[in-house]
Design a protein that fits this description.
Helix content: 40-55%
Number of strands: 3
Number of helices: 4
Low-confidence stretches: none
CATH class: Alpha Beta
Largest sheet: 3 strands, mixed
CATH architecture: 3-Layer(aba) Sandwich
CATH superfamily: YefM-like domain
Order of helices and strands: EHHEEHH
Strand order of the largest sheet: 1-2-3
Strand content: 15-25%
Mean pLDDT: 89
Structural class: alpha+beta
Distance between the termini: 17 Å
Number of domains: 1
């Protein structure tokens, strides 16, 4: 995901919009702090609608967007055979 300052976005808006049209995302910053995100309209609407449909069916529960305070300090589960890494690498190779 690319970032662009407001001034840079204003100066090169058409270039950034072309990138968003092909599926890219741009985080807009103001004085170094993120203030907005440009995403393709179709992609974000479809994703939101799909999540709402799954939630209504009781198949998922949407989160609050906040992790517990101790999340990053929590102990990680063991994976002595490296199955998680193997699955991740296979997924990357498949282009998913």
């Amino acid at each position: 995901m690319k970032t662009a300052a407001v001034s840079e976005l204003k100066a090169h808006l058409s270039e950034y919009l072309n990138e968003v049209k092909v599926g890219g995302e741009i985080v807009v910053t103001d004085r170094g702090k993120p203030v907005a995100r440009l995403v393709p309209v179709v992609h974000s609407l479809l994703a939101r609608d799909s999540l709402l449909k799954l939630q209504k069916q009781g198949l998922i529960k949407t989160g609050t967007g906040k992790l517990p305070e101790d999340f990053w300090a929590a102990e990680r589960p063991e994976d002595p055979d490296g199955l998680v890494l193997k699955a991740l690498l296979e997924e990357r190779e498949a282009g998913r």
